UniProtKB/TrEMBL annotation:
Identification of the protein by name: Alpha/beta hydrolase
Lineage: Bacteria, Pseudomonadati, Pseudomonadota, Alphaproteobacteria, Hyphomicrobiales
SUPFAM superfamilies assigned: alpha/beta-Hydrolases (SSF53474)
Presence of the UniProt keyword Cell membrane in the record: no
PANTHER family xrefs: AB HYDROLASE-1 DOMAIN-CONTAINING PROTEIN-RELATED, ESTERASE_LIPASE_THIOESTERASE DOMAIN-CONTAINING PROTEIN
Tree of life domain: Bacteria
A GO term for molecular function: hydrolase activity
Cleavable signal peptide: 1-21
Amino acid sequence: MNKHLTFIAALAFATAGIAFAAEAASVKNIVIVHGALADGSGWRKATEILEKRGFNVTIVQEPLTSLDDDVAATKRVLDLQEGLTLLVGHSYGGIVITEAGNDPHVAGLVYVAAFQPDKGESLLSLASSKPAGSMDIKETKDGKYLYLDPGAFAADFAADLPKAEADFLAKSQVFASKQAFAAKIAEPAWRTKPSWSIVATEDRAINPDLERDMAKRAASDVTEIKASHAVFASQPEKVADVIEKAAKKVGE
């Protein structure tokens, strides 16, 4: 009888272990935070690829009015997820996920041609440390928001996209507040959570060497892709591969 009970207990323990492993390996939620001077529509191809691979993908359409507002918008989306989530950020979105990634729902971070700040750093301080190609950034008449001149958008942001796609991105860009670009990070989530970084080697918005330096500092797993700043749109399959790899790794 005792042997029988021992066997049942062992079986129950093993079954629980298998169930736990299955649960741990099921990080299926992907939340994407788009960058400034863009919106979430450019992520459509990558989203469709990830969904075909079984992931639940949600894109945060943050207001770009301030870092606090953008982090709050991201957390609202995180609160809707069931289970753990992989948080993905492009460009300025990397600033957002660095702060929002401290949320307990977040299992890991993926930086896609993104800023990856440390405590006390901002987009402006990082961008000025290693300047990239000269982007034709303009101010709105009220002096509070910034945008990329639509005529220069393709060359500066999306040089490897077909003209029609680049033009659409230019027309759908979300203006970014100066306040958001100047905001400093309080507690970088990459210090406590695993991270991955995609370096766009032809990036003219963020210096590729800066992307490499930030990723090295954070001990991120790095993938280099020959692409413009709009790597998420021009190389969606390769970007999806990195995101899938990260999702599987954080689930181990």
